[in-house]
Fold this sequence. Notes:
Elements: H1 2-9, H2 26-94, H3 96-159, H4 162-183
Helix pairs in contact: 2-3
Amino acid sequence: MKNVTDSFLSLGHWPSAGSFGFNTDILATNPINLSVVLGVLIFFGKGVLNDLLDNRKQRILSTIRNSEELRKGAIEQLERARTRLRKVEIEADEYRMNGYSEIEREKENLINATCDTLEGLENYKNETLHFEQQRAINQVRQRVFQQALQGALGTLNSCLNSELHFRTIRANIGILGAMEEIRD
């Protein structure tokens, strides 16, 4: 805390700059700048971020509901496939003498097709969720960055006026002149 106070007091100790000068102590000024930027981001970006997150939450919940419906449909298909399998097994007992291997192949194909369908639907659901989450994260990042940039530009534009500009230029010229005199 003492370094921060000293950094503000050192502004008036530059004889060539008059009552205005630059603080070149990076360790003292960065926490102040960061706290100002974070405060502005939190104050202005909180509502928008909440709205974005709520919208994303609703979309993700909708996607989850859709995926659950697809899952229920796949379970119904599986139940139908199991019913069909039971019928095939009954027929297999009747036709055991005539073509047992053919019925076994049909049963395996049916099970494999159903398992493949379920795996595909599960993979699709997982990919959709992952994609939607990544898209939501990227949108939030982009919005926060845009708002931070707009806030920073607005702050800079509101703080800089022509008088401050001329004072800064005069102070820098005075510093350069003092440095030139020291070299000579």
